[in-house]
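Sanity check. The docking grid for coenzyme A depends on where the pocket ends up, so I'm generating a full predicted complex first rather than guessing from homology. Inputs follow.
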Amino acid sequence: MTTLFGRRVLLRPLTVSDFEQWQEVRRRNVDWLTKWEPIRIAGQPDVVEDRDAFAVRCSARQRERQLGTGYGFGIFAEGDFAGEINLSSVQRGPFQSSYVGYWIDEKQAGNGYVPEALIVLVRYAFEELRLHRVQIAIIPRNAASRRVVEKLDLRSEGVAERYLEINGVWEDHVRYAITAEEWEARAEELLGAWVD
Ligand SMILES: CC(C)(COP(=O)(O)OP(=O)(O)OC[C@H]1O[C@@H](n2cnc3c(N)ncnc32)[C@H](O)[C@@H]1OP(=O)(O)O)[C@@H](O)C(=O)NCCC(=O)NCCS
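Predicted complex below; grid placement will be based on this.
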């Protein structure tokens, strides 16, 4: 199992044995998270309330890792499950790109765990997966998430209108990106500030 280490956070794929902790955090954070996430598709089992559905989710993520199309990780902070961060839609060929999504338990917010996890994941994307581009899309009014990319000084590529359907609405997103060239130039600075 791939385990990635930051200064305070540990990233590893979730397994079915994480269900109880994951469920407790997800149940407690409904209001905190729903406004920033896609709506569950009608008819799909509720992964928060159904252990078997969570197991299927874990297997699907494992399959994505095997196929090289996605890399999902739980964020563990000081030993506790705290949130998730994922590389998704990995595209090879001339694009060599992936998108990052993340969330953290409201109780753990404000500790800089997500920017730290993001740098750990970006390092993995460039140095292990050998991708060329990592992208993050954020709804303009999501000030907390924009702070994450701003404090890492990731480059904004402008606003994509009606880009993703979030909580039932096609929302504009600010698109941020970092490429392998930028990582090479900034790795020492970013790892020194957040990881090593
Ligand atoms: C966005 C998010 C992942 C940031 O994670 P984090 O680990 O708290 O990141 P940071 O500690 O660097 O905090 C980032 C900013 O959040 C804000 N913040 C801090 N604590 C907060 C709290 N308890 N409640 C709300 N916002 C808070 C601050 O503006 C902070 O910036 P600052 O450090 O300059 O003060 C987290 O707020 C979250 O999970 N939000 C809900 C889901 C979401 O928006 N996901 C991203 C979708 S693109």
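Relevant for the grid: The pocket of coenzyme A is lined by residues 32-33, 36, 102-104, 109-115, 138, 142-145, 147-148 (CB under 6 Å).
Also worth noting: The chain is about 35% helix and 30% strand.
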